[in-house]
């Protein structure tokens, strides 16, 4: 069993990563980080570069947790990738970050967090950014 | 040389409208160079309709700006993302990306901008002195010379192009065929019109260029061939140091010369010259092992050369009326639509246009130098826009643009047909460039050939006995025979080697 | 798909590009394309004779097309015969169907733009390209298609006043 963290390089994403790390250490499990770029993009701001990923992996290493990075590209919905990877690694827990969206932003893009909470058939831990 | 018309040219460039279009051209060119998918020929083709409502000189100033702006735009993605935006920046990837990985992206892009500026400027100065000389020489050309010259141009582009030579020749043949559609200018007979009224005046150049280059590329990109996405690159805004500039000054100088010389040759152009300049720098370096590990000369040389070549490839267009590569062929088409036939008379009959375009390149190169570094952040941002969102926008611009040229729905259909043809050609390994080039030269070639035959009273030996056309025929023979000879030689060498082994 | 190994040297990079190239179709597809051109060239030659070739002293309308037709026949025949040396054609893949769909939306645009204006076919084209060819979300595709048509209306109809047929 593994703890799955859906990660984007923002404060919320870091909060989710830390929470996932805590949870994995407590359960004695490892972490799979999903960092999925949008298919067809040349540059995706949600993607982490090698150095950044290395730093996070080392942080986990110090706590005895190994991290596997998954960078499968997603099509119209990142939730599909989260579900697929969760099935793939038989995740015991999915950790996501929550952030406030303006009503307009929600109309345009919808809420990924909401769809993960409702549609992924695993326990989900939702984390807020540190105030 | 008539200096007053050179100076007159500057006054043309400095008109606010021309300055604005030069700026737009360079900016659009850089943008398109950054965005993957559309090459410079496709961009120039898609933007052709815009140029129809402005003065010819303004139109060409903008299109030329797109052309050399795209050269630099391709550099940005080569260095930062290891993705050559244009074919002419492929070799820049090796050292440019290695430099970026070491945190020297700013140096690499800075030296590329300086090199582009120097290469472009050297090329313009050389063009200023060289072009009038060529044009004067070409004034004596009659139909036989033009026939051989056009044929030579098509053959050179076909033989130096990137793909297979034979396939390029077949594509060129198709281009010549398409150029015959419509009423024959000599006899008035209708050829290959299939009794369609819309085809009586022949096929317009715009739908062919827009379809083959523009829609063809977009359709081709629909097949999922997008590579992996990358994280946003970290931009270190450090300009090249004095030492780095000094270190690459030799490469910039040699790159300018190589670029200028190879740019003049039909089929040479930016791609070939960037590769030649890189190979030459590596060869003459005392430490060739540094290349590929972040040698600044490995960025300076090809980037200087491709810009110098982009500039000098205007020489055969403006002096002989022979486009040297696919993008220049589209610019040639734009001039024809404007009612200007490029050729040796251009410099005397339209000095304002000739010198306006030439001198606008100084301004364009200065704009390129000023804008390149500060705008990199914005370009990287634009890269985040997905191709899937850009594609429908480009398609709609193309379809609506095709309509506005002649207010004809038939032209939209033609664009679709040539878009499909362009896609199929790419799939089957045929380059569309030679087709478009042969199409623009087709009617010139035919009328020159028929005039010559009438002139010679049907005796084709006249092509050989006239001195200039004789020399050109000789060049033609060399172009045709050289690759075959080379193939024969290597085969013989291989055989000799094999025999030694036995 | 884990973190990809980064190519370091130009040789590795060239290898990586080679590996990412689309699947080659083999010589048969080059031969087939060339055979089509041979037939085209032959048809052009026949048609050129009908146009009247004239004489070398007085070339007719068909002389030049006849030469082109002959050139096409000869060069493509050589291509058919040497096709096994070519591997630069690409195989059609499952996503090639997307190209046909994309082309279909363009032809539809061309067919109806004269009667009902560019807005509806334009929006349909943009929507199909975003949603089905680009695999964007329903939401983004709908909003994007409408936004594009509005933008084009503002630019081409109101600002540039081009005579593109429009409904509103």
From TrEMBL, chain A:
SUPFAM superfamilies: Adenine nucleotide alpha hydrolases-like. Gene3D superfamilies: HUPs (3.40.50.620). Pfam families: Usp (PF00582). Residues 3-128 form the UspA domain. Belongs to the universal stress protein A family. PANTHER family: STRESS RESPONSE PROTEIN NHAX, UNIVERSAL STRESS PROTEIN UP12. This is Universal stress protein. It comes from Aeromicrobium camelliae.
Automatic annotation (TrEMBL), chain B:
The chain crosses the membrane at residues 20-48, 109-134, 146-162, 168-186, 257-280, 317-340, 360-380, 412-428, 468-488. Keywords: Membrane, Transmembrane, Transmembrane helix. Coiled coil: none annotated. It holds the Pfam family TctA. InterPro entries: DUF112_TM (IPR002823). The keyword Heme does not apply. The keyword Protein transport does not apply. Residues 19-437 form the DUF112 domain. It comes from the Bacteria. This is Tripartite tricarboxylate transporter permease. The lineage of its organism: Bacteria, Bacillati, Actinomycetota, Actinomycetes, Propionibacteriales.
Automatic annotation (TrEMBL), chain C:
It comes from the Bacteria. Residues 33-165 form the DUF1468 domain. Residues 1-20 are annotated as: Disordered. Residues 1-11 have a biased composition (Basic and acidic residues). InterPro entries: DUF1468. Pfam families: TctB (PF07331). This is Tripartite tricarboxylate transporter TctB family protein.
